[in-house]
Design goal:
alpha/beta, Rossmann fold, four-stranded parallel β-sheet
Length: about 450
C-alpha cells in the first residue's frame, strides 16, 4: 500500500491535508496508556513536532503493514468529532468518517469486513458490535474514551427510575434511547417497544411513538429531548424532566420530589426527560447566537444545545447536517457553528478551500464573551499512538482484550476497569438492543 503524498489535498470528507499545520490534539501523559501501548506513545512523544508531515510518516510504519496484512477485511472508522489528525489518519488508510447513525450501520452493511477498528467513544463501538455478525470483531483504539453525557446515564442510574415508571404506566410507556447510551439502555428501549434515536432522526422516532398514543421516556439528553418536543410542536408544559440522575441510584422513589410538579406532572406528561447533558454543547447561550446574527453571520447549532439557543439559531441538526451545510455553502458565506471544537476546526479547513468563513459560536472578539470552543476531551483520548498501537498489535495477533468491544461491556472511563456480561446475558441484551436499533432504522428509512 502506497499512502497519499504529503502535499496539500482534500480528503473524501473535504478536510484539507496540510503538512505544515500543527495538530490540535493535546498529548496524553505516558501513564494514561495501557502497557501494550506505551512503546508507541514513547515514540510519538519523542517526535520533534505534531505536524502531519512528521506524524503521518511515523504512523505509516505501523498502519501500512496492518492494512496490507488484513487487506479488504479491515475497516477503520472515526467520528466527525475526532481531532483533525485522527480523521486524516483514518481517511489516509481508506477508512470512513461519519456521524453516529452511519457508524452504527458499518458492520452490518459491510459483512466482508472482519476486523473493525473504531476511533471514537465506547458507546459507538458497542453499537457497531450489537449489529455486527459473529464473524466480525470490533476494536476501539482507547477503551477509556467515554462520553460525559453517557456517564450520567449508566444502567445503574437509569433503571431504578425506568422500572418505577414502567410499573406505573405499563405498555403506555416507551423508552427512546439516544445513541449516546450504553447497549444495556438500548436494550431497555427494545424491551419497552421503544427505539434508539440519533440527533438526525429523534423527531421521526418520537413522532411515531406519539402516533401510537404512548408516553416517551427520553434518555439521556434532556436538551435533545426538549428540542425534539419543540420541533414536533409538543406543549412544553407536557415535557417533564426527572430529578438529578444520581439521586435515583441512591434510592429515590417515584413521588412529588422526583420531578417538578411531582406525580401529577408525570401523569400528564407526553415526554419524560432523563437529566443528563453534553458538557460541550451546554456552553452555548442565546447571546452568542444574537451577536453573530447581528453581524451578518448564519448560525447553525447542534440540537444537544439548550432550547433557547436552538430557537434563536438559523438552523440546527446533527453533525452530518452541519458538515453538509459547510460542504454546500456558497463562496462568501459566513457560518458560525455551535458544536464540538474539533469539528469546527475541521469544518473551517473545508470551508477555507471553498471561500467560506467558519467560526465557532463562542469565538466572539469582544470582552464578556470568553472563547470556549472546547473539543470532546474523552473522544480525543483516541490519539495517534493508540491508532498505531492497535493496528500493529492486531497485525501481530496481540490485540489487547480490553480493546475488544462486545455488546454489553461497561468500561470505567478513569480506571479502564471493564464489566462484561456472561454469554447468555449478552445474547439476551443483544436481542433487545437490536430490536430498538432495527426499529430506529425502520422508522428512519420509512420516513425518508
Amino acid at each position: 500500500m502506497t499512502p497519499p503524498p504529503l502535499t496539500p489535498s482534500v480528503a473524501s470528507s473535504g478536510i484539507v491535508l496540510r503538512p505544515d499545520l500543527p495538530i490540535c490534539q493535546t498529548d496524553l501523559p505516558l501513564d494514561w496508556y495501557q502497557e501494550e501501548f506505551k512503546p508507541y506513545a514513547e515514540e510519538y512523544l519523542a517526535l520533534p513536532d505534531r505536524k502531519p508531515g512528521t506524524v503521518l510518516p511515523w504512523l505509516d510504519r505501523y498502519a501500512i503493514p496492518a492494512c496490507e496484512h488484513f487487506g479488504d477485511s479491515l475497516l477503520l472508522l472515526a467520528h466527525f468529532y475526532m481531532g483533525g489528525e485522527v480523521v486524516k489518519l483514518v481517511e489516509r488508510y481508506g477508512g470512513t468518517i461519519a456521524d453516529s447513525y452511519v457508524l452504527a450501520l458499518q458492520a452490518s452493511r459491510n459483512p466482508e469486513k472482519r476486523v473493525i477498528v473504531e476511533s471514537a467513544v465506547h458507546f459507538m463501538a458497542e453499537t457497531i458490535a450489537i449489529l455486527a455478525g459473529d464473524h466480525q470483531s470490533v476494536w476501539i483504539t482507547n477503551p477509556k474514551a467515554g462520553c460525559t453525557m453517557e456517564m450520567l446515564a449508566k444502567e445503574w442510574m437509569v433503571l431504578p427510575a425506568a422500572e418505577q415508571l414502567v410499573a406505573r404506566y405499563g405498555d403506555d410507556l416507551a423508552v427512546v434511547a439516544y445513541m449516546n447510551t450504553g447497549g444495556r439502555l438500548k436494550a431497555l428501549a427494545g424491551r419497552t417497544n421503544g427505539a434508539v434515536c440519533t440527533s438526525s432522526n429523534a423527531h421521526k422516532i418520537v413522532a411515531q411513538i406519539r402516533k401510537e398514543g404512548r408516553k416517551v421516556l427520553f434518555v439521556p439528553d434532556h436538551h435533545l429531548g426538549r428540542n425534539t418536543a419543540w420541533k414536533l410542536g409538543m406543549p412544553l408544559d407536557r415535557v417533564v424532566q426527572l430529578a438529578e440522575p444520581r439521586q435515583w441510584a441512591q434510592g429515590m422513589k417515584l413521588g412529588d420530589a422526583s420531578a417538578p410538579g411531582g406525580i401529577a406532572a408525570l401523569d400528564a406528561a407526553e415526554m419524560i426527560l432523563w437529566g443528563s447533558y453534553c458538557g460541550v454543547h451546554t456552553i452555548f447561550r442565546r447571546e452568542h447566537v444574537e451577536w453573530w446574527r447581528a453581524h451578518g453571520w448564519k448560525v447553525l447549532v447542534h440540537p444537544e444545545s439548550p432550547l433557547e439557543v436552538v430557537q434563536a439559531a438559523d438552523g440546527s441538526g446533527s453533525t452530518d447536517f452541519l458538515w453538509k451545510a459547510v460542504q454546500n455553502a456558497q463562496p462568501g458565506e459566513r457560518l458560525a457553528i455551535g458544536t464540538e471544537g474539533h469539528f469546527v476546526r475541521n469544518a473551517r479547513e473545508l470551508a477555507r478551500a471553498r471561500g467560506v468563513e467558519v467560526m465557532h459560536l463562542t469565538e466572539i472578539p469582544e470582552p464578556g464573551f470568553p472563547a470556549a470552543g472546547c473539543g470532546c476531551a474523552t473522544m480525543s483520548r483516541n490519539d495517534p499512538p493508540h491508532l498505531a498501537g492497535i493496528l500493529d498489535l492486531l497485525r501481530r495477533g496481540k490485540g489487547p482484550d480490553l480493546n475488544r468491544v462486545l455488546a454489553g461491556d461497561v468500561v470505567d472511563e478513569t480506571s479502564g476497569r471493564r464489566e462484561r456480561l456472561e454469554p447468555d446475558d449478552r445474547a439476551e441484551m443483544i436481542r433487545d438492543a437490536r430490536r430498538a436499533l432495527e426499529r430506529m432504522i425502520e422508522i428512519t428509512e420509512a420516513a425518508g
